[in-house]
From TrEMBL, chain B:
Belongs to the binding-protein-dependent transport system permease family. It is a multi-pass membrane protein. Keywords: Cell membrane, Membrane, Transmembrane, Transmembrane helix, Transport. Coiled coil: none annotated. One of its GO terms (biological process) is transmembrane transport. It is found in: Cell membrane. This is Peptide ABC transporter permease. InterPro entries: BPD_transp_1_N, MetI-like, MetI-like_sf. GO terms for cellular component: plasma membrane.
Length: 517, 314, 297
């Protein structure tokens, strides 16, 4: 514990020095004033809407986890991800496939004098979600039955295997204070009407979000008195900030992982949070130029995925063969209908009678997608397809295939896409059903078998049967020819060796559960 | 003097009006409904209805513009499409950081550049003059964003002397000052060269004028001649240059803020453009323009106050 | 708006052959001007002959050799896709040259016309044009560019428009100032009293006399335009991949700055050299064409 770089703000060094003195049997009088323990982290953008019903996702969830009650939280067991009850509940049990009983801990109060945490708050919060923008997560919720001041039952309309992992552990499962939210007009944006957690939230837009101790909190004390989350949008910039000693823990990109594996900054370690995202090259199967499946198949054969992973992801990412991420039921490890084979691609194009094909590829204008796009451009060039790369800002990019957002979807030909996911295969599968055509199914294919498989996957609780369902469903996707699976990029954090970090598989840091080793 | 001020104010108002017209028509030139364009892809139907009412699209164009202009003048810059917060407040939060950066950058450039220019002019064709000449061309030759990247590479990545990212801890002024050094250095460096050259040239011109010769003939000390008589006259074009250069300074600040991940109006505009948060883009551009006009106005007034002859020119 | 104008004013006189030789000697013995000339020639030559000089295809990838430092194979190293940085810099010079050539000549032509219009047109028009020139001249360009790109998307055309709009005012102002001075000179008054049309006066007397200062200004403007293009491309407003421009190279280099610092060093050099080249050349030319500006230098 003599890493001067670690103690730039002095908390760790003085903390351990105190322990050493205490063990030595004498404690100087000054030491009674405990130094404030500060944890310095990075947030990738401004908090816009804290309201779980209307949030954008990501960092907002991170803030909710510190300030709002949840019934369940993720539990990591080796490579598999499960759930456990949080310290907000004394009981959380699945009585039968459609009933979940819970009992809240006694003595937890909402801030601002809004009274104790009650079962009716759970009812209010979850039933409210059904009418929100995140209603998808609560589709199977029938209602919440309040059986006592602190007890209740969540009643589902049908069995829903992923309910704990996808809904209760995740941001949408946050519980709000009925009284405070109603007083605030039913919705809120950048401030919580009331919190019930170890931290209070305050925000300096564009600069930092600060989590200060909540004086009304009577639950378990977190390790850190204060959490300072700096807003740094570019992931590259975080490396510099970390190496300059300005952060204690931060996410890093694949380039940095590759470099830190070779030689990490002094006193630092890497922690992998999960690889719950999937990236693919999509094709609009309805577009006249891509209507012929042989053309789409040719493109599948033409793209050199290994080079993409080597160049854009420094060989850190896992090669993808579908939409179900590594570690989950239904993860696929090989493709069935294509391999990298430019000769085959040329053959298929000739067979389709296509010559001098010109296509466009829309991509996010950030570093990795741009590199991917340029490799695809070169790959397709090698089989005689001229590719124009159209870089887009995040705003127009995320809506280009949506029919509700103008006419771009008609011109959409190829694009690269990356979805984040949660630790259950259901979440990823839902975006490609027939009813999602023109919403998130930009490839615009429909298949009744796929639709029914998605439904079966939700209701099935036998892991082996679920596995088969999800393997089959990805096979159907691949067969459409509209996908070239690219990769799952792992989410890595670099942090001081003496901190144990807690990051959910989908990448939200849970500061309450960070500890000092 | 008051007539002159009035004229200058009218000019400034006219320029702001021009920018408003440009912003207003840009949104209407692009095909599509101005409301959905202004709100961007994330617009909800409720927000569209709200803004349509506010922009009164059923009115004639000039009425729409008048309403828009009136809103801007009264400080109503619209609302953030995500959070519904007032754009005026959001811009207000960020502008301090940008001003701090610009003042620091220009400050050190003035403190170094003007004396350097004076010295070079007083001792023309000496080694000092030559070094100043080479230095100024050298610093002007490196665009500020390149300077920012190189400074980042050398002082932060390689040598680790200075923090690279952000604006420092809120409330910790020492830390904030430390974070200001790199961006202020990068933004200001070119100005050292500009100012030194400018001051040197106008100083040489002034030193050849008859009133300086008479001052010398009266036996005043060289320091007195230079600082009390020559400099106030020689500085005039420089003040105008600083005023006119404020626009360039804002552009450099945008780069510095993006490169050093620093909060500020430039970063705000850059991020809002990427998210297509048009109300913020629009509001921030209006505020920046107003600020720019204000600085130009002030520098003109300052010049006319120092040198009354100028007032007749307009 | 600006009062103490630093723009080169005109000196009208006939030039004897011997004087011209003397000027040439002044230029040739001025090491700064010669250095400038050499750099400018290199700028043009390397851009024009980039396909012949470049050791590699600028878009050819060699992924195993990515992010390499300078070596005999790759004199300026490679980028993240293993493309040869030197070849990309050379081809990026073509983008810079295109923007500079078209941008500068367009804005020079428009500025010349507007400047003459301001000098010889009605007084009110003059005031209006002056107002517009002054507001545009030092408007925060990047901010205007960012605001526009959010509506139109990135393209080289957009960069060109921004370059032209921001460059016009200085040409117009120089033309106007020079034309105003000339308008009052004896020979123009004499010509006019003989019944010459305004157009004739502009073409035969004003134009030949403003060409010199405008060319100097154009040479000074090239590095400004080139940096502007690089800056806009750095922010992602300009060329689209795989085309390389000095700005996109710098952006790519910035993103890998922790892995390899060579890209930002190498891709920055041509910007600096081009600026120095054109600045020195312009100053050398000014010394010949307009010695009055050379006082004390």
């Amino acid at each position: 514990m003599t890493q001067p770089t670690l103690s730039r703000r002095g908390f760790l060094a003085s903390g351990t020095a105190l322990t050493a003195l205490a063990m030595g049997g004498f404690l100087p009088p000054i030491a009674r004033a405990q130094p404030e323990k500060v944890l310095r982290l990075r947030m990738d953008g401004d908090i816009k809407i804290l309201d779980p019903g209307y949030m954008i996702g990501g960092i907002e969830i991170e803030a909710q986890k510190q300030c709002l009650p949840f019934l369940a939280q993720y539990k990591r067991d080796g490579d598999t991800i499960g759930w456990e009850p949080t310290y907000y509940v004394s009981k959380l049990e699945q009585r039968d496939p459609t009933h979940i009983d819970f009992e809240l801990v006694e003595g937890l109060n909402w801030s601002g004098g809004h009274g104790p945490l009650k079962a009716s708050d759970v009812k209010f919060s979850y039933e409210r979600m059904k009418k929100s923008e995140w209603a998808g997560y609560f589709e199977v919720l029938d209602h919440v039955e309040v059986t006592g001041e602190r007890t209740g039952t969540i009643v589902l309309t049908k069995p829903f295997a992923p309910f704990f992992l996808v809904t209760l552990c995740h941001g949408p499962g946050a519980i709000l204070c009925e009284r405070a939210v109603t007083e605030a007009g039913g919705r809120f944006t950048t401030q919580f009407p009331a919190v019930c957690g170890p931290y209070l939230f305050s925000n300096a837009p564009g600069q930092a979000a600060t989590f200060l101790p909540n004086p009304d909190w009577s639950g378990p004390k977190p390790e850190f008195d204060r959490v300072q989350a700096k807003i740094i949008t570019q992931v590259k910039a975080t490396e510099l900030a970390y190496e300059a000693g300005e952060l204690d823990c931060t996410q890093i990109d694949s380039d940095a992982v590759a470099r830190y594996r070779a030689g990490p900054p002094p006193g630092s370690e890497l922690t992998k949070a999960g690889e719950l995202n999937f990236m693919w090259l999509g094709m609009n199967s309805e577009h006249p130029k891509l209507h012929d499946i042989r053309v789409r198949r040719a493109i599948q054969h033409a793209v050199d995925v290994d080079s993409i992973i080597a160049a854009a992801y420094s060989n850190v990412a896992t090669k993808s063969c579908g939409i179900i991420c590594p570690g989950l039921i239904g993860h696929r490890t090989e493709t069935k209908f294509y391999t990298y084979d430019p000769a085959k691609a040329r053959e298929l194009l000739a067979e389709a009678g296509v010559n001098g094909l010109k296509l466009s590829l829309r991509t996010l204008n950030t570093q990795q997608p741009m590199l991917v796009a340029q490799i695809v451009q070169a790959n397709l060039g090698a089989v005689g397809i001229t590719l124009e790369v159209i870089p887009l800002d995040a705003g127009p990019f995320w809506e280009m295939g949506m029919e509700s957002a103008g006419d771009t979807w008609k011109d959409l030909e190829l694009w690269t896409m990356r979805f984040g996911s949660v630790p259950d295969p259901y979440e990823a599968s839902q975006w490609f059903v027939s009813s999602q055509v023109g919403n998130w199914n930009w490839e615009r294919w429909t298949n009744p078998e796929y639709d029914s498989l998605v439904e079966q996957g939700i209701a099935e609780s036998n892991p082996e049967k679920r596995n088969d369902i999800y393997l089959r469903l990805q096979e159907i996707m691949e067969e459409t020819g509209a996908y070239v699976w690219l990769c799952h990029e792992p989410r890595y954090y670099v942090h001081r060796s003496d901190i144990s970090v807690n990051v959910s598989p989908s990448g939200q840091q849970d500061y309450r559960l960070f500890t000092v080793i | 003097m008051s007539g002159y001020i009035l004229k200058r104010l009218a000019l400034a108002a006219a320029v702001i009006l021009t920018v408003l017209v440009i912003l207003f028509s840009l949104l209407r030139l692009v095909p599509g409904n101005p409301v959905t364009i202004a709100l961007g892809p994330q617009a909800t139907p409720a927000a569209i209805a709200h803004y349509s009412a506010k922009m009164n699209l059923d009115q004639p164009v000039w009425v729409q513009f008048a309403t828009y202009a009136r809103n801007v003048v009264t400080g109503d810059l619209g609302e953030d499409i995500f959070t519904g917060r007032k754009v005026a407040i959001i811009v207000g939060e960020q502008i301090g950081y940008s001003l701090m950066l610009m003042v620091a950058a220009m400050g050190w450039a003035i403190v170094l550049g003007i004396p350097l220019g004076c010295l070079a002019a007083v001792r023309p064709n000496t080694w000092l003059d030559r070094i100043t000449g080479v230095l100024s061309v050298g610093t002007i030759a490196i665009p500020s964003f390149l300077m920012a990247i190189w400074a980042l590479l050398i002082l932060s990545v390689q040598l680790r002397w200075l923090p690279a990212m952000g604006a420092g801890e809120a409330g910790d002024y020492g830390d904030q000052a430390l974070h200001l050094i790199l961006p202020a250095f990068a933004v200001g460096l070119g100005w050292v060269g500009y100012l030194a050259r400018m001051v040197r040239a106008s100083m040489l011109e002034v030193l050849g004028e008859p009133f300086i010769r008479s001052a010398r003939a009266f036996g005043l000390t060289p320091q007195r001649v230079i600082f009390s008589y020559a400099l106030p006259v020689a500085i005039l074009p420089t003040i105008t240059l600083i005023g006119m250069g404020f626009g360039g300074l804002i552009s450099s600040a945008v780069f510095a803020e993006v490169i050093f991940a620093r909060p500020g109006v430039g970063k705000l505009i850059y991020d809002s453009v990427q998210a297509r948060n048009f109300p913020i883009v629009q509001g921030a551009v209006v505020v920046t323009t107003a600020l720019y006009i204000l600085v130009v106005l002030l520098s003109d007034l300052l010049v006319s106050w120092i040198d009354p002859r100028v007032r007749r020119v307009l | 708006m600006s009062v103490a104008s630093s723009e080169p004013t005109l000196e009208i006189r006939s030039k004897a052959r011997s004087a011209r030789h003397a000027q040439l000697r002044v230029f040739l013995t001025n090491w700064q001007a010669m250095l400038g000339l050499v750099l400018v020639v290199i700028f043009f030559a390397s851009a024009i002959f980039a396909p012949q000089i470049a050791p590699y295809d600028p878009n050819a990838m060699d992924i195993p050799a990515r992010l390499a430092g300078p070596s005999w194979q790759h004199l300026a190293g490679t980028d993240q896709l293993g493309r040869d940085t030197l070849s990309r810099i050379l081809h990026g010079g073509r983008v810079a040259l295109t923007i500079a050539a078209i941008g500068v000549s367009l804005s020079l032509a428009i500025g010349l016309a507007l400047g003459m219009l301001a000098a010889f047109g009605p007084r009110r028009l003059d005031s209006l044009l002056l107002l517009i020139f002054d507001s545009v001249r030092s408007f925060p360009t990047i901010i205007l560019g960012l605001a526009t790109v959010s509506l139109t998307g990135p393209s080289l055309g957009l960069v060109m428009v921004i370059v032209v709009i921001t460059s016009i005012p200085q040409y117009a102002r120089v033309t106007r100032t020079a034309a105003l001075v000339l308008r009052g000179t004896d020979f123009v008054l004499a010509e006019r009293s003989l019944g010459a049309s305004t157009l004739r006066i502009l073409w035969h007397h004003i134009l030949p006399n403003v060409v010199g200062p405008l060319l100097i200004l154009a040479a000074m403007d090239v590095p400004v335009v080139v940096s502007l293009e690089a800056g806009l491309s750095f922010l992602g407003l300009g060329v689209t991949p795989p085309t390389a421009s000095w700005g996109t190279l710098l952006n790519e280099g910035y993103l890998v700055i922790r892995n390899s610092s060579w890209m930002v060093i190498m891709a920055g050099m041509p910007l600096v050299l081009t600026t120095i080249g054109f600045t020195f050349l312009a100053e050398g030319l000014r010394d010949i064409l307009d010695p009055r500006m050379n006082r004390g230098r």
